[in-house]
Write a structure and sequence with these properties.
Length: 393
């Protein structure tokens, strides 16, 4: 069987390894003298790693500025940062943090050279303008293992409320120039954050693997990521949280998920991430963790109605074999092992339900009407989407 045609989007220069964080000053100096360092509000400071970074940058002859991002980036947060730094744009933006911090840094680097609000460049917003690709160079350093934002070409911006949104600023040129992944940065993550961010990576791997736009390359990446994830996820959430080798497996899985999703797209769980995330304030990883098993169950049921031997069911069965650690014979048993494994993790990790974040039953119809997912494994009608939400309410 010939290899099908495919396109692979550009990637950053990727540096992956324990202790690589110390290389940041050397890497940053290649872009110039001034640098905007974007971080979260607590962890990096408390660990002493922020002061070490700032000292290292100054010793390398750079002039660093620091911006704190304490929540998921909104248009107002990004515009406020732009007002402070636009007139004297730094030579490079460096974001060190979780997915929200990386998205904020990516958006700031993307809009610093433009004289408009970031909202004009957000997909689906009134007056939307396509970004032209001009940006300040950007370095992404994740401290959680989840979003894969360090290798993607979009930044998620949200405004929470009954008329809120959670959508992307996107252009192929917005892929970070450098992605540095150091598993040592993840060893202090709480079990709760490890679980939530890890389930985001797992969701992305499964959704990209089963996407109708998957390619042999994204399949290989997804399976490689799933193998590392299966080997170390529960250990990272429980008895080995400070093991950098264990953390390295999950960081690698997240990295693979980012490359895979950028090229194959994502499914219904991430479709809900946009619509639910615009209505209630729920952490993205938690939303993935609470919906993945139910969404996978619905996808498998719908595929079986089409063809009991559907090729995508074979992919779900393969994912089930990898994540359960058990070779599978029959197609149906592989799919059931996947559902059993995801359900077991959901129970073991005590994943909260949607109502715990303020979602109401009367929100379901509106959320479904806003949900789109062209890359889902199978087309879902409104009734199917409602089942996913109500079963996790």
């Amino acid at each position: 069987m010939p290899v099908p045609d495919f396109t692979l989007l550009p990637l950053p220069t990727i540096h992956f390894g324990v202790g690589y964080y110390s290389r940041l000053p050397e890497l940053a100096t290649s872009f110039g003298r001034t640098i905007l360092v974007v971080t979260g509000s607590h962890a990096l400071q408390q660990s002493g790693r922020l002061s070490a970074l700032m000292d290292g940058l100054q010793s390398a002859g750079m002039c660093p500025f620091h911006l704190v991002v304490g929540r998921e980036p909104s248009p107002e947060l990004i515009d406020s940062a732009l007002s402070m730094y636009r007139d004297n744009a730094p030579d490079v933006v460096l974001a060190v943090g979780g997915g929200s911090v990386l998205d904020a840094g990516k958006a700031i680097s993307a809009i610093l050279l433009h004289h408009l609000s970031v909202e004009r460049f957000i997909e689906g917003q009134e007056g939307f303008m396509q970004h032209d690709g001009r940006k300040v160079p950007f370095i992404a350093v994740p401290t959680t293992s989840g979003t894969g934002s360090e290798v993607t070409n979009n930044a998620v911006i949200s405004r929470v409320g009954r008329k809120g949104f959670k959508r992307s600023l996107r252009h192929v040129a917005l892929v970070p120039d450098i992605a540095l992944i150091d598993p040592e940065l993840m060893v202090t993550l709480s079990p709760e954050l490890t679980a939530a961010s890890g389930m985001d990576a797992c969701t992305q791997l499964i959704e990209a693997f089963t996407s109708p736009f998957a390619t042999p390359v994204t399949d290989a990446l997804a399976c490689s990521g799933l193998e590392c994830f299966a080997r170390s996820f529960i250990a990272a959430c429980s008895d080995c949280p400070d093991d950098s080798l264990i953390r390295g497996d999950i960081a690698y899985a997240a990295l693979m998920s980012g490359i895979a999703l950028a090229n194959a797209g994502l499914g219904i769980v991430h479709g809900f991430a946009s619509s639910v995330g615009g209505v209630v304030e729920i952490p993205h990883g938690t939303l993935c963790a609470t919906l993945l098993a139910e969404a996978t169950r619905e996808n498998i049921a719908q595929l079986r109605l089409i063809d009991s031997n559907h090729p995508t069911l074979q992919k779900y069965a393969k994912a089930g074999a990898i994540l359960s650690g058990r070779a599978t014979g029959a197609l149906s048993s592989g799919c059931e092992r996947l559902l059993d494994t995801l359900g077991h993790w959901q129970e073991r990790l005590v994943v909260p339900r949607l109502r715990e974040y303020g979602m109401l039953p009367e929100d379901v119809d509106g959320i479904v009407s806003l949900t789109r997912s062209k890359s889902n494994a199978v087309k879902l009608d409104d009734a199917a989407m409602k089942r996913i939400l109500t079963n996790r309410w």
